[in-house]
Each structure stands twice: as C-alpha cells, then as structure tokens.
Specification:
The structure holds two protein chains of two kinds.
Chain A lengths: L2 E3 L4 E5 L4 E3 L2 E3 L5 E8 L6 E7 L7 E2 L2 E6 L4 E6 L8 E9 L5 E3 L3 E6 L1
Parallel strand pairs in A: 2-12
Antiparallel strand pairs in A: 1-4, 3-9, 5-6, 5-10, 7-8, 8-9, 10-11, 10-12
Chain B lengths: L3 E4 L2 E4 L5 E7 L5 E7 L5 E9 L2 E4 L7 E2 L9 E3 L8 E8 L8 E2 L3 E5 L1
Parallel strand pairs in B: 2-11
Antiparallel strand pairs in B: 1-3, 3-8, 4-5, 4-9, 5-6, 7-8, 9-10, 9-11
Classes of the chains: A mainly beta, B mainly beta.
Chain lengths: 114, 113
C-alpha cells in the first residue's frame, strides 16, 4: 500500500521569507501523480501544485515550487516570499496513474509571522 | 459556476439514526470520491467511483455505503452512525481517472452523539 509521510507537523516562517515543507512517499509504481493541497481555516481544500512522475522538470506555480526527487521518493514544497495568506494546513497527496485511490499525508500546519 | 456541492454542511445526529450526505458536481466529471478528515490523520479515502454504477472501497469503507446512479451525484450513506464516525467529510471529483486534479466540495461536519 502506498504511504505518504509529512514529517513536520508544524512549521513557521517570517513574512517575505522562504519555507520548505517536506513530503516522502512509498510506492512500487512508476506512473503516478503528486499534489500539494492547501487547507485554510475555512477548511476548503485548494490545489496548490501537481507533479506528474514521468516529468523530470519540477512543477512551478508563481511563488510555489516543488523539488521532486523520484529515486528518493521525495516531494517537497517551497514557498517563496511568504505571505500572511499562506498560513494554512498543507497536505501532500499521491495518486497512482489511471487508478481511483488517493493517499494523503497527515498535514503540516504553516504559520506565517508578520 | 463549476463546483462540487455537499449537503448538509453541518449535521448533529444520534447513534443509529440513518443519514445521507449528498454530493453533486456540475462539471460532468466521471470520477468522484469521499474522504473523511480527522485531527492528526489527514484525509482518508472512504469510497470512490470511476463512473456511473462503478464504485470501489477506499482505505476506510467500514460503516459507509455509496451509490452512483447518475453521473453528477454521489451520496454517502451511514446506515447506523456511531460516535467514531464523527468527522469532517469531503466529496471530490475529477474529469476522468487520467485527469488527476480533484476538485473538492466545502465539507460536511458531522457529529454523532
């Protein structure tokens, strides 16, 4: 069974600084997708970024980027120029290609200090 | 507006009283799924559906039922709720199984007394 591990239950960052959230996963599959979701206090789940395993290039969305290390099964999220609105719970998620099951990590709570 | 809706958003009930949480999407998505979120445990998948009349178990299906009679709807049924099913529930959908980005509903907070 696939597992997703987020080893940092809580992280904090100063406004305008950079922070990196860690995620590791375990799978025997070669084709899969990885995601980072943001959950603000409203509890809405918002997609931040996604990465296809077959792509070597790391995904980037504005201030958000990932460091995808397929061999190490590592998928970290970097948030640059952190803003107060980035404060939220962040979840790493795995989904095998062409399959219905998804696995989420336990989440990392990010605090942004003004 | 493209969206996933859930009803009710909040529900307090008692042990053993059957309930249904509805989920509907207006994006013609083939894939739909239910998750529960508990403190410290992230999201855990309950059931998913790849298309109409096709459903399968996720990681925590015990105590839940689902049906997919129409493409847009995917209700979650608790035949005999118990206090350990107190949780925050999310419905999600995606265009097809190869369109992996899931769109989430707003969540349903359930309290079983």
């Amino acid at each position: 069974a696939q597992t997703v591990t987020q080893s940092q239950p809580e992280m904090s960052v100063q406004e305008a600084e950079t922070v990196t959230l860690s995620c590791t996963y375990d799978t025997s599959e070669s084709d899969y997708y990885l995601f980072w979701y943001k959950q603000p206090p409203s509890r809405q789940m918002i997609l931040v970024i996604r990465q296809e395993a077959y792509k070597q290039q790391n995904a980037t969305e504005n201030r958000f980027s990932v460091n995808f290390q397929k061999a190490a099964k590592s998928f970290s999220l970097k948030i640059s120029d952190s803003q107060l609105g980035d404060a939220a719970m962040y979840f790493c998620a795995y989904r095998r290609f062409n399959a219905g099951k998804s696995t989420f990590g336990d989440g990392t709570t990010l605090t942004v200090k003004p | 507006e493209a969206q996933v809706t859930q009803n009710p958003r909040y529900l307090i009930t008692v042990t053993g009283k059957k309930l249904t949480v509805t989920c509907s999407q207006n994006m013609n998505h083939e894939y739909m799924s239910w998750y529960r979120q508990d403190p410290g445990l992230g999201l855990r998948q309950i059931y998913y559906s790849m298309n109409v009349e096709v459903t399968d178990k996720g990681d925590v299906p015990e105590g839940y039922k689902v049906s997919r009679k129409e493409k847009r709807n995917f209700p979650l049924i608790l035949e005999s709720p118990s206090p350990n099913q107190t949780s925050l529930y999310f419905c999600a959908s995606s265009l097809a199984r190869n369109q992996e980005t899931q769109y989430f509903g707003p969540g349903t907070r359930l309290l079983v007394l």
